[in-house]
Design a protein that fits this description.
The structure holds 2 protein chains of 2 kinds. In chain A, 20% of the residues are buried. By secondary structure, chain A is mostly helical. Chain A has one domain (2-112). Chain A has 6 helices and no strands. Chain B is an alpha/beta fold. Helix content of chain B is 36%, strand content 25%. In chain B, the strands form 2 sheets. In chain B, strands 1, 2, 3, 4, 5, 6, 8, 9, 10, 11, 13, 14 and 15 form a 13-stranded mixed β-sheet that branches. Chain B has a two-stranded parallel ribbon with strand order 7-12. In chain B, helix 2 (50-68) packs across helix 3 and helix 6 (200-219) runs parallel beside helix 7 (235-248). The longest helix of chain B has 20 residues, at 200-219. Chain B is globular. The chains are: A mainly alpha, B alpha/beta.
């Protein structure tokens, strides 16, 4: 059941973004920034956490989840360290994800060669 | 002889002695696949990066041209060549071993028209007896230059075009041959303020319309003067805009008009959205399909109009619009006149 929920919710988020890709002139980079920022806002108003508890990886893996992680990190850091936390919390919270992306991306570049798009 | 504001009719035609075309695998699977001289199956051409792969296309096209032509390499006094990459690296690295003096050209996807026009002017002036005109593009290097690296894996919107992997080269001469360049019309920069770099057909169609109208006016002719008018890479979107724009001015070209970007791919089965684009698109389509139809007598007189979208990633990121340019080249089969 957990898998099905994650699959459906994650898929629905992708469908919404696909509509943005095809029906608007937004460039992919902008759409990604939009997703991260939306995640931060949804986290801040307290909507994303219960949503993520319901959908699990379906909510935490898409970029909205990354925005939520940034928000949580900053909130924790501000609670503990005050204003300085603004500059620290986001990086602390996303350090694992970003480092893993760098590392695995680099490993992938050893193993795979670039190819043309087939279509 | 100067004609009107922006056209030239050559006193003596400039002949196209031979042409060569090199394409990638996808192009070879398209409707024109059978017509190309060389098909490069390996998209990397055995090189370690896309830029070198594109230079290799240019080398192969020039090599093939030098095999096909009856002139020696030393007979070619100049080469006019260009590509889409920053500082024309595909061209400069591609032609360095030939030791032929080079004019590097940038006209975005209109480069092949620009090369033919300048080559013809040079031969006409007596500055050279034989010159080479060439232009190349590569899907992967162009995506990297203008959009996103392929490794990033972004999606392509429906109005976007597919950069042709290929290079076309033509040998121009002052010695009589069946097919000749008899005149040119040089395009102005036309900017309708379109800002969507993924919809280049819409950016370039006004430039093509302006050029075709200027050609008609300068020469005192209309669309019936030509058997076919062929634009470079307006694609399906730009085609419709061009036909509409010219219709407003009282010219109906729809019956005698096509576009290299539409001809080169089968959009439905090859998933190329609006069609082919890139310097290589008009260059290989000209060197294979258009030359074949002119030599074969299907078309007696053609107005070849490669089109370019003059953007860079810098201008685009600074919020500039995407201006267009077009270069018109009149190509005729003169053999029937002498018969």
């Amino acid at each position: 059941m957990e898998f099905i929920k994650a699959f459906i919710v994650g898929g629905l988020i992708c469908v919404l973004v696909q509509i943005l890709m095809e029906k608007t002139k937004l460039m992919p980079g902008r759409i990604m920034v939009l997703l991260v920022c939306s995640g931060v806002v949804l986290g801040a108003v307290g909507l994303y956490e219960p949503f993520q508890e319901f959908a699990g990886a379906g909510a935490s893996v898409p970029l909205l989840g990354f925005g939520n992680v940034l928000w949580k990190g900053i909130k924790t850091a501000v609670d503990e360290e005050g204003v300085l936390g603004l500059f620290k919390g986001g990086f602390t919270a996303c350090a694992v994800g970003v480092s893993a992306a760098l590392l695995f991306g680099y490993i992938a570049s050893w193993i795979f060669k670039p190819h043309m798009k087939k279509k | 002889m100067q004609k009107g504001k922006q056209s030239v009719l050559f006193d003596k035609p400039i002949f196209i002695e031979t042409v060569s075309s090199v394409v990638g695998k996808k192009e070879s699977e398209g409707p024109l696949g059978e017509l190309f001289d060389v098909v490069v199956e390996d998209e990397m051409s055995g090189k370690e990066n896309w830029e070198k792969a594109e230079s290799a296309l240019l080398e192969q096209a020039v090599d093939k041209l030098l095999v096909k032509t009856r002139y020696k390499k030393e007979d070619f006094r100049y080469m006019f060549a260009g590509d889409l990459l920053g500082q024309l690296i595909a061209t400069s690295f591609g032609v360095r071993r030939y030791e032929i003096p080079v004019f590097g050209l940038y006209g975005a996807c209109s480069t092949f028209g620009e090369a033919l026009a300048l080559g013809a002017i040079t031969v006409s002036s007596g500055a050279a007896n034989q010159v080479i005109a060439a232009a190349s593009s590569h899907f992967a290097s162009a995506e990297k230059q203008f959009r996103f690296p392929l490794e990033y894996g972004n999606q392509r919107p429906p109005a976007s075009t597919w950069t042709v992997t290929g290079c076309g080269a033509a040998a121009l001469t002052n010695e009589t041959q069946p097919v000749a360049i008899t005149g040119i019309t040089t395009g102005k920069i036309i900017d309708y303020g379109v800002k969507d770099s993924m919809n280049m057909g819409a950016c370039m169609a006004p430039a093509a319309a302006d050029l075709i109208l200027a050609n008609f006016e300068d020469l005192g002719v209309d669309e019936k003067y030509y058997d076919c008018i062929i634009t470079g890479d307006l694609g399906i979107v730009g085609r419709k805009i061009l036909i509409d724009l010219l219709h407003e001015k009282g010219h109906d070209i729809s019956g005698r008009y096509t576009d290299c970007g539409i001809e080169i791919f089968d959009a439905a089965s090859q998933n190329t959205q609006a069609g082919g684009s890139g310097c290589g698109c008009s260059a290989v389509t000209f060197c294979a399909y258009i030359m074949k139809n002119i030599t074969g007598g299907k078309w007696k007189r053609v107005l070849f109009v490669p089109t370019g979208a003059l953007l860079s990633t810098v201008s685009y990121n600074e919020g500039e619009s995407v201006p267009g340019i077009a270069h018109g080249v009149i190509v005729e089969n003169l053999s029937s006149q002498s018969n």
